[in-house]
Specification:
globular
């Protein structure tokens, strides 16, 4: 049964639907969100639970009582440190924290204001430090809403020291304060207030009755901000945006109106479509793959992409095309196969209710969104949907489309090679394996969150987790970088080793779908035996935890000398002796480097 979009529902309908979904999701993974706040947060709870149900979790809320933040975080036995808690929301609302900063600003001297601002930031820092002593769970920290009504009136905008501008500076100082704090992410409450407007955000009556500041709409939008963070943390973000053409990428129907008759340009309505294309290109520039799936004559579409003077998006921005008169569900499946990604990695945009409904029913893994009736809303809809939000943008992200174009050249080269070995030889592949460092940690974390197909355990790790593992005396974290004559694929593989006595366990072993089948996995596994700490062990253990997508890795360990020692429904455990080691690197590789030392070169 399809879960309704929350925007079209009344609060009572959401609560009723949540009751059904909670029962339906009872066997899904448990996911608790803990709230620490000096104001009443109950209005938010139904919305975040509803969003978590949509992501197929069994949601729960951990409440900590009103305005006892520091006491709660200082207790090791607090429920916020329960293993099911996956996110801690921290909201220190300015109006409930300081009379000077919120109500007595005009009468307070600069020294008092500065002292109070320091007390506020130190308090938040102390709370986070106490959390970090006891937990590595991600923290979603509210910033401060810019005041809408101030005693200074118009003058507040002109005075750098006014309450208005002081809060703006506070937000900047807050960002600086937590910038280098691992696992803390800003929830931009001020931007939410700006988006929906103060009157729809702040509930003055309930604020005075029960220190409950948020309207239902504000609660929904804040919950959506938490969801964006959660999606990014737990591998739920999307990789590919698939677009329809007519009345989506441009206004009008190219087959009927011709290139001169479609709307895309500098005046309305064409300006709305051009602005939308700029938003799409911004996603492209940060690593989101673009594809077209449209019922058109291919030649007509290509003519627009290549020749129309006002198009922002050109043919080279798209990594895949399905332009024909077939069902769009078939086109989306073909795009997924071509890019070697799952349908659940795609978002599909179309102006047709019929097409969107068909995709939702036939291919529900794809997020299918109907474009608004007014094209001037296209841009905002795309940038606010949250499906592509990321907590970090890596070098690999920015270069992703170029990497896929390089892959197209590889496929062309494969077509003219006499054999697969000749083809691999011609690629002149080089591999770099190294311990995790500040450069690679964000990418390794990202790989654990996004990689599904060649991922033997599918364990998800945040940057904080990876950093802590890399520093541990009982673990090693390694990355694998692959490049060839067509280009640098970046960091495409990772492994995590854990040590206990004379046993080395492969906690995580994964490879990006873009490079599966080239033998990089054998090079990485071979080199794990030579890691210094692993070399002191007698046995190496590997785990395969089956998922819907990683079936291709079932035989990985047994086909490489590991013996099955445990077999249950949820996992298979393999083990092999590593006393007698042998470096096995396929001969077609040009060079293999481990921590700057060349271990193989032709």
């Amino acid at each position: 049964m399809e879960i309704p979009e929350i925007e079209n529902m009344k609060f009572r309908e959401i609560c009723n639907e949540l009751e059904r979904l909670t029962a339906e999701n009872s066997n899904c993974p448990a996911f608790s969100v803990a709230f620490l706040s000096n104001v009443t947060m109950e209005p938010v709870f139904p919305f975040i639970k509803y969003f978590l149900c949509r992501e197929r979790f069994a949601p729960a809320i951990v409440e900590t009582g009103f305005d006892n933040i520091l006491q709660e975080v200082s207790k090791s036995e607090s429920n916020i440190y329960h293993e099911d808690v996956k996110l801690i929301v921290l909201n220190v609302k300015l109006e409930a924290f300081s009379e000077i900063l919120s109500r007595e600003f005009m009468s307070a001297g600069p020294g008092s204001i500065e002292s109070e601002e320091g007390r506020l930031l130190d308090y938040i820092e102390t709370v986070i430090e106490e959390i970090r002593k006891r937990s590595a769970v991600p923290v979603a920290l509210h910033n401060f809403e810019i005041p809408v009504f101030t005693a200074g009136g118009v003058y507040d905008s002109l005075d750098a020291g006014s309450r208005l501008n002081s809060v703006r500076k506070l937000n900047f100082r807050l960002m600086e304060k937590i910038e280098k704090t691992e696992g803390v992410y800003i929830v931009d409450a001020d931007r939410v207030q700006s988006h929906i407007g103060y009157d729809d955000y702040f509930d003055s009556r309930y604020w005075h009755i029960g220190r409950s500041p948020y309207t239902n709409r504000a609660a929904e939008k804040l919950s959506h901000e938490y969801l964006k963070i959660l999606r990014a943390l737990y591998g739920k973000t999307k990789k590919c945006l698939v677009l329809d053409c007519d009345n989506t990428l441009w206004g009008g129907v190219i087959g009927e109106d011709g290139m001169g008759g479609i709307a895309v340009g500098h005046t309305y309505p064409g300006s709305a479509f051009r602005d939308f294309q700029y938003a799409v290109k911004e996603l492209y520039d940060r690593g989101i793959m673009l594809a077209l799936c449209s019922k058109n004559n291919p030649a007509d579409v290509m003519q627009v992409l290549e020749e129309h003077p006002d198009m922002v998006l050109r043919k080279e921005h798209f990594v895949a095309f399905s332009i024909n008169w077939d069902n769009k569900t078939d086109g989306l499946k073909e795009i997924a196969r071509e890019l070697n990604i799952g349908p659940d990695s795609m978002v599909f945009l179309d102006d047709s209710d019929f097409e969107v409904s068909m995709v939702k029913n036939v291919l529900p893994q794809v997020v299918a969104l109907k474009m608004p009736d007014d094209p001037s809303l296209y841009r905002d809809m795309l940038l606010s949907c949250g499906y592509f939000d990321s907590l970090v943008i890596t070098e690999e992200d920015r270069n992703r489309s170029g990497m896929y174009f390089a892959e197209t050249k590889r496929k062309s080269a494969a077509g003219v090679a006499d054999s697969i070995m000749d083809y691999f030889e011609s690629l002149e592949m080089e591999i770099e394996i190294r311990f995790a460092d500040e450069y690679s940690i964000p990418r390794i974390s990202q790989l654990t969150q996004r990689t599904n197909q060649f991922n033997l355990t599918t364990r998800r790790y945040s940057e904080t987790d990876i950093r802590n593992l890399s520093r541990s005396e009982n673990a090693d974290v390694l990355s694998l970088r692959l490049k060839d004559k067509f280009g640098d694929s970046g960091i495409v593989g990772a492994a995590i080793l854990r040590y206990e006595g004379d046993l080395c366990e492969i906690d995580t072993f994964l490879l990006s779908c873009r490079v599966i089948g080239r033998g990089a996995e054998d090079v990485l596994l071979s080199e794990l035996f030579y890691i210094e700490d692993a070399g002191r062990c007698l046995k190496m253990k590997g785990v395969y935890a089956p998922t819907e997508k990683n079936g291709q890795t079932l035989e990985f360990y047994p086909s490489r000398g590991f013996e099955l020692i445990e077999d249950t429904e949820n996992r298979k455990v393999f083990c092999r002796d590593i006393v007698a080691r042998e470096r096995k690197i396929p001969e077609y590789f040009k060079k293999v480097t481990v921590n700057d030392s060349v271990v193989f070169e032709k």
